[in-house]
Design brief:
By secondary structure, the protein is an alpha/beta fold. Helix content is 32%, strand content 27%. Strands 2, 5, 7, 8, 9, 12 and 13 form a seven-stranded mixed beta sheet that branches. α2 packs parallel to α4 and α7 packs antiparallel against α8. This is Polysaccharide deacetylase.
Length: 346
């Protein structure tokens, strides 16, 4: 009898430990726009490739959650299931309904659509309708703010600084009021989430968006974690050739680069500070760290200490935007990943 109790106790302990090992505090967020609209190659993915990606997630037991659920867990410091992924779709183009939705519905996968509401209000045939969005909301879709008319908020603010706060607030609140009225409980409100148009943000915009009660979402690539900047959550773009299956598999298995600090939180570049430098302080030495610009050019790296590195492009970055992306081998086939946005001003 005593032996049986001991065996049961050991089994329970083993089960708990195995469960804890299968939890994590990071996730990968995927970003899409159009589906099978190949006259827009930079923002579209073929349904053949998208189907391969979705079926890979299903067959390999990835946990697919809506973005709001992942963000809420991270903010509340709750553990996420192993291999957690979110599918996000920007702009609410009509091909979401005609192409992607049937596949996502078939596999019962949730997804998050960032809505810029002006073209829907004006009933553009290229965008979703409210009825289509309400239907998708019954089968896994949630909706979040992408501003009313999808403008260059950072650049517009530089051109017209006096009206900046009023202008940006109006863009965000007009969209929020409309989507909540039309889509009700399917809109992310706990927390409220905003995706920056064109993925562009700076320190001033982040502060304003935070004051309005939103989490901010960007477009530069990296996994997200409890230690992420919740005013600029990163995503992996899957369109424009960035989602081929070898890249897809690599990216959904990435880990956040273990960063202690980053020297420059802003993103704006002009002639006076282009090319920019960035100083990263790591939590542990990573001697195989490599950094690249968006066009794949290797960035010069200067190690200041065993864990602090200064990175700087040899040439000025080109308009309209660029990124510094740093990676290092983690464990097995996994890679650490970090990306910093730069907005290049004329």
């Amino acid at each position: 009898m005593a032996m049986k109790i001991l065996i049961n106790y050991i089994f329970v302990i083993f089960t708990i430990q195995a469960s804890l090992l299968a939890m994590q505090n990071h996730a990968v967020v995927l970003q899409y726009h159009r589906f099978d609209e190949m006259k827009y190659p930079s923002t579209s993915i073929s349904m053949e490739l998208f189907t391969q990606q979705v079926e890979y997630l299903v067959k390999n037991n990835y946990t697919v959650w809506p973005l709001s659920k992942i963000v809420k867990y991270l903010l509340e410091k709750k553990e996420l299931p192993d291999k957690t992924v979110s599918i996000t779709i920007d702009d609410a183009y009509h091909s979401v309904y005609t192409k992607a939705y049937p596949l996502l519905k078939k596999y019962k996968l949730p997804f998050t659509i960032f809505v810029n509401s002006a073209p829907i209000v004006h009933e553009s045939v290229h965008y979703l309708t409210w009825d289509e969005m309400r239907e998708m909301g019954k089968y896994g879709a949630e909706y979040a703010n992408h501003t009313y008319s999808h403008q260059y908020l950072v650049r517009d603010g530089i051109k017209n600084p006096k009206n900046y706060k009023k202008y940006v607030t109006k863009e965000i609140e007009m969209c929020e009021v409309k989507i909540e009225k039309e889509l009700g409980k399917k809109v992310c409100t706990d927390p409220k989430i905003l995706a920056y148009p064109f993925g562009e943000y700076d320190v001033r915009l982040m502060k304003l968006v935070k004051s309005l009660g939103y989490v901010g979402v960007a477009q530069n690539s990296a996994p997200i974690s409890r230690e992420s900047n919740f005013m600029a959550l990163t995503r992996f773009p899957m369109s424009g050739g960035f989602g081929e299956m070898d890249q897809f598999v690599l990216k959904i298995n990435t880990l956040p680069l273990p960063l202690e600090s980053i020297s420059n939180k802003d993103t704006l570049l002009d002639k006076s500070n282009n090319p920019p430098f960035l100083i990263l302080t790591l939590k542990k030495p990573l001697k195989d760290l490599q950094c690249f610009t968006s066009d794949g050019k290797k960035i010069t790296m200067q190690w200041l200490t065993e864990t602090t590195v200064k990175i700087e492009s040899e040439l000025p970055l080109l308009y309209p935007r660029n990124h510094y992306t740093c990676t290092a081998h983690a464990k097995g086939n996994a890679w650490y990943w970090y990306s910093h946005l730069w907005i290049v001003l004329k």
